[in-house]
């Protein structure tokens, strides 16, 4: 069988030349066995258009830099095989994040701000002796923390979320999941009221309207519906008791 | 943080508003389904319907129901309005977003907002008609046997759709239930309640003009 000719429709825009309107540009690439979008996009850049901008680092689903809208679905380009896609493939950058050019967006700044706002570090005033053996943690707790910790900060749950598209201050599922990670951690001494100050608002968990685009699109499969419900219940109970 | 935000910080407020929205929504679903079962008493005959209507009148349940729907409705509309994108720009963003990501639950939320807004007008008309014209088989049958049939069919479809999606939304937000099974169960309930409503309307229609 002849290899397919894939037609890529790719979003083009350079914020530094705002006089040029955003547009969709077509590129035709011959499909190869085992081709991922990482390979296809590099083929386009090498053979058709050296100006095309997109991001990849690990090309193995670990660094989270290649999130984009693939035929509308927010997901990782490096883990998407062209054989699972139709012949016509539309690529757009993730919304919400600052657009750097074409398919490249700045997720880093967004996630750094979110980390600061959710105070993503273990709050503890316990003296730590760096030479003493680490305190053990039971396996179940460690695993539930690890589940949340698997987030690769790709931003797919943010770009796909209508609420995040409307409200720039909304921390999104990645933010709520981050808070869940610290809530589960027994080393973090924050009280539930302190967590409430961080996420008990419209910009936090009570801004979420339950669209579940986050849960449907997280490429590493973090159970975001469960994480959101967990934090929502905890914060409802904290808010109820709040004076 | 900005000045106005720092001054406005009553953090408990966001939780309360969310709770009022959800609880009023659930109460309205309960009301809707009870209401549909009561209306379906026409299937047991004119006698049954009139007895139930008289029972409700004798025990003053009609005003109670009307007051309930006004209070619960006002609480629901008041809290839910904050979520409906109000500015033109925001409207453009949500519709474009839904079209781009082609995501089922995002569409169902938009339809939830649309059916809700449409219902707001229809429910007000419906309550006015019932309060000022009254309920018994004859009146109701004549109402259904007229152009108002379409009004009732549209209201029925909007309300059942909105209730079912609202219930789905609430459960998805607060529990970790399997969404696929939830959708299946709610689809069956919706088909049953819409079916029951349509059959009741058909029976009223057949009585219309003849009694
Ligand atoms: C009359 C005008 C109405 C309007 C404008 C309206 C609008 C809305 C909107 C926009 C939402 C989504 C809120 C969100 O996701 O944050 C919603 C949720 C909901 N609605 Fe309505 N609605 C109306 C009437 C009703 C009625 C009659 C019922 C019951 C049958 C109902 C039951 C619900 C439920 C259960 C929810 C889910 C609550 C939640 O997610 O917290 N609504 N409504
Ligand atoms: S459930 Fe919906 S509103 Fe909430 S974070 Fe996920 S995508 Fe956004
Ligand atoms: S939660 Fe999932 S979708 Fe969201 S940023 Fe993390 S890995 Fe990406
Ligand atoms: S390039 Fe690292 S996740 Fe795709």
Automatic annotation (TrEMBL), chain A:
Its EC number is 1.3.5.1. Residues 4-95 form the 2Fe-2S ferredoxin-type domain. It holds the Pfam family Fer4_8. Residues 141-171 form the 4Fe-4S ferredoxin-type domain. This is Fumarate reductase iron-sulfur subunit. GO terms for molecular function: oxidoreductase activity. Its cofactor is [2Fe-2S] cluster; [3Fe-4S] cluster; [4Fe-4S] cluster. It comes from the Bacteria.
From TrEMBL, chain B:
InterPro entries: Fum_red_B_TM, SQR/QFR_C/D, SuccDH_FuR_B_TM-su. The chain crosses the membrane at residues 20-46, 61-81, 109-135, 147-172, 184-205. Pfam families: Sdh_cyt (PF01127). It is found in: Membrane. SUPFAM superfamilies: Fumarate reductase respiratory complex transmembrane subunits. Keywords: Heme, Iron, Membrane, Metal-binding, Transmembrane, Transmembrane helix. It comes from the Bacteria. This is Fumarate reductase subunit C. It comes from Ammoniphilus resinae.
């Amino acid at each position: 069988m002849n290899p397919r000719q894939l037609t890529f429709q790719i979003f083009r825009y350079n914020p530094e030349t705002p006089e040029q309107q955003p547009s969709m540009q077509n590129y035709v690439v011959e499909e190869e066995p085992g081709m991922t979008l990482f390979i296809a996009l590099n083929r386009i850049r090498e053979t058709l258009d050296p100006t095309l901008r997109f991001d990849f680092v690990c090309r193995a689903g670990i660094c989270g830099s290649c999130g984009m809208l693939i035929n509308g679905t927010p997901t990782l380009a490096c883990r998407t095989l062209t054989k699972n896609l139709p012949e016509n493939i539309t690529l757009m950058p993730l919304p919400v994040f600052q657009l750097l050019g074409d398919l490249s967006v700045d997720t880093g700044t967004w996630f750094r701000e979110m980390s600061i706002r959710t105070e993503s570090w273990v709050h503890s005033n316990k003296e730590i002796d760096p030479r003493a053996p680490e305190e053990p943690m039971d396996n179940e707790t460690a695993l539930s923390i690890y589940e949340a910790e698997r987030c690769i900060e790709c931003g797919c749950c943010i770009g796909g979320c209508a609420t995040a598209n409307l409200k720039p201050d909304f921390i999104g599922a990645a933010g709520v999941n981050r808070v869940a990670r610290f809530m589960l951690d027994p080393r973090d001494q924050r009280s539930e009221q302190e967590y409430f100050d961080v996420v008990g608002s419209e910009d936090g968990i009570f801004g979420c309207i339950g669209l579940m685009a986050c849960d449907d699109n997280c490429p590493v499969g973090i159970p975001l519906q469960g994480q959101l419900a967990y934090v929502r219940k905890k914060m409802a109970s904290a808010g109820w008791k709040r004076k | 943080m900005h000045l106005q935000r720092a001054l406005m910080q009553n953090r408990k407020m966001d939780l309360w508003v969310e709770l009022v929205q959800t609880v009023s929504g659930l109460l309205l679903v309960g009301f809707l389904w009870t209401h549909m079962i009561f209306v379906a008493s026409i299937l047991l005959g004119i006698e049954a319907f009139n007895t139930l209507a008289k029972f409700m009148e004798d025990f003053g349940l009609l005003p109670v129901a009307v007051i309930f729907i006004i209070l619960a409705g006002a609480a629901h509309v008041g809290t839910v309005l904050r979520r409906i994108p109000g500015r033109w720009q925001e409207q453009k963003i949500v519709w474009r977003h839904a079209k781009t990501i082609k995501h089922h639950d995002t569409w169902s939320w938009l339809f939830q907002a649309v059916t809700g807004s449409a219902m707001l007008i229809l429910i007000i008309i419906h309550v006015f008609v019932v309060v000022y014209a009254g309920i018994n088989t004859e009146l109701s049958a004549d109402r259904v046997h007229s152009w108002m049939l379409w009004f009732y069919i549209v209201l029925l479809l909007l309300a059942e759709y909105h209730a079912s999606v609202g219930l789905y939304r609430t459960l998805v937000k607060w529990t970790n239930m399997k969404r696929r099974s939830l959708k299946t169960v709610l689809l069956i309930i919706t088909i049953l309640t819409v079916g029951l409503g349509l059959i009741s309307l058909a029976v009223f229609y057949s009585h219309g003009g003849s009694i």
